[in-house]
Structures are given as structure tokens and as C-alpha cells.
Amino acid sequence: MVAVFLIFIVWANYASQVELKRLSLVRYREYASVEASTLSHFFMERKDDLFDLEASNDFTAYFKNKALGMSPQYGLLASKIEMSELFSRCVSRKYLNEIKIYDRIAFINKDGETLVDNANVFSPPEWCGATLQDGADSETVRIWIEGNDTPLRLILMLPIAFEKKPVGAILAWINPDALQALFTVPQDGGLNANRFCFITRGNQTYPLLHEVPRQL
Questions:
Q1: Dihedrals phi, psi of 94, to nearest 5 degrees
Q2: What average pLDDT does the chain have?
């Protein structure tokens, strides 16, 4: 009789643990689904930001004036200033939970040279590690992962074409703190307090906001 009772207790405990594990997995899936939706919505809004910049007259004026043959010292310089101010307004207005979303927005030519950013148009041209691929679709926003001995940085890239010819790309550096705010760990010590966030690319997995190799 005692043996039967012990077997019953062991079996009940085992069944209870199995059910708890099943419920935990269900809750993890629910959390993952919610966070995936949050991240997807975040990047959809960033995509819209870049398309809005591309469609702005302050952005397109530079290419129109260049096609008209305006000199760099006059018409093109004024257009670059307007473009820089456009980028600056976007950086200063886009926030998530009082955290700015963008660290920097710039335009690079098809050779990778930075022509304009949100800071100014008078500094010497810089070179960006992001590269444009031949035949890049101007309707597709790509994500460039930048990192070496520094935290992971995500750069959004929108290839730009003028009169059906590639001319460069708009780049937007995402503020790591804004990404961190999407995955704020709750203070209640619940299930969601012990999860980790990763970015996967091909067969490689990298921890979000931690060190990653530059070559992917």
C-alpha cells in the first residue's frame, strides 16, 4: 500500500512538472510573438521614415539642380544644406520613450563617399563601411550590421535612384538605446525577465547590443 502511494506521489509530481513546462513554453511563445511584432512595427516605421526623406523636395532638389548643371559653390551647396537640415529635423523629432531613435542620418554617393549628414555639409567627405550592391532595389530598405570591438550597430540603407540611375543611398544609424528600450526587462522578476535577444543572419547568431565581428 505504501509503495502504491509513493508511486502515485512520484507520478503526480512528474505530471505536474510536465504541465508546468508546457505552460512555460506556451508563455515563452506568446512573449516571443509580442516582441517580434513590436520589432517588426519599429522597423516598418523606420522604413517609412526613409521613404519620407527620399520623397521630400529638400532631398530631391539636390539631384534636380545637379542635372541642371548648377555649380557646387552655389546651387548645389544650397541644396546640400537643405538636405542636411532635412536629416537634422528627422533626427531631432524621432523618439521612442524619450530616447532618440537615430544617431545619424547621411547620404552617400554610389562610391560610398559621405556627401551630406545631419550634422553639417562643410566637413571633409568621409567614407562609410556600408557598400552599395549593383542593381540594388531603390524600393528596398536594407540593414547593414556594423560592429567590431564596439556594441552592435544597425544602419538602415535605402538605395537612391534619380532618373532610373543609381546615385547613392540614404543611411540611418539606429541608436542602440532605442533598440534596448524595445526589450526593457520588467522589474517584477517574471518569466520575461530572464530572456535574451539575438539577431540572426544566415547561420550566424549575434547577441543584440553586444560585440559582433565586422565581417558577416
A1: -95, 115
A2: 76
